[in-house]
Structure prediction request, 293 residues.
Amino acid sequence: MREDIFEKYRDAGILAAKILQQGAQEIRVGGSYLELIESVELRVQDDGADLAFPLNVSLNEDAAHDTASTGDPRVFSNGDVVKLDLGLQLDGYIADTATTIDLGNNALLLDASRHALEAAIKKVRPGTTAGELGAAIQFEIESRGYRPVANLTGHGLGQYIIHKPPTIPNVGITGGAVLEEGMVFAIEPFASTGSGHVREKTRMEIYSQIAQKPVRVPSARAVLERVSARRGLPFARRWMQDKKMDLAIFGLVKSQVLRGYPVLSDIAGSLVSQHEHTLIVTEGGCIVTTLAR
Prediction:
């Protein structure tokens, strides 16, 4: 990996770790969901970076892909398990990191995903398979009485690319990608009190552009002009701040110019915790770019 690229990943990771920690400290019972998200997203911009995706704040059984809508009335409640998933980028080089905040009495659940992440990181080196990382994650979570979410995975990262090989499973599999020096990826274990399998909900606030097609409707053209600079990285519907653009988004999804990311959720009443770091594989192991310093 070129030194300048390594420095972008490193600097993005340092900044992401700092902002994630600050955001986590602001979550409290009675606090505004929307205000928390807007505060963290603004901090990314104020610190000279850009968002790789809208800040994900997923509650309780919801594991991923939730973010605030315009005027979102939600507040954090006693007992909530809050996943805070931040992606930021510098010139397209991404740091993806997450933590979970417990507003109830769920310390062991949080320990499960945290220790799973730590165990997987210890195994990262050239020649290790992704399946071995998954087995380490599964063992740590199941040994504490929970289920790993089997249909969510870690993922490779590239310039302006959030998901690419290698796929890092949260359960043990035979084989999988063989890790190589220079690979950049995120490991993100999810521990659940539920089924260990997420399904799509109807709620959808996050989108990305997946195709280039001519569009005639002015509001649809305006949406694409707004998001073109993101080079395919996801955006939030609330970023549009215009009802005409809001309606245009649904038309662009229908015409397969945009894709939506539904909230992913385990069974109702369950709780899911998540922890995540971004890593670069080195000759002798790995560098975790998103460790708090």
User: Anything to note?
Assistant: Residues 44 and 50 are 6 Å apart (CA to CA). The chain has a mean pLDDT of 96. The helical segments are 3-25, 33-46, 107-122, 130-142, 218-227, 243-254.
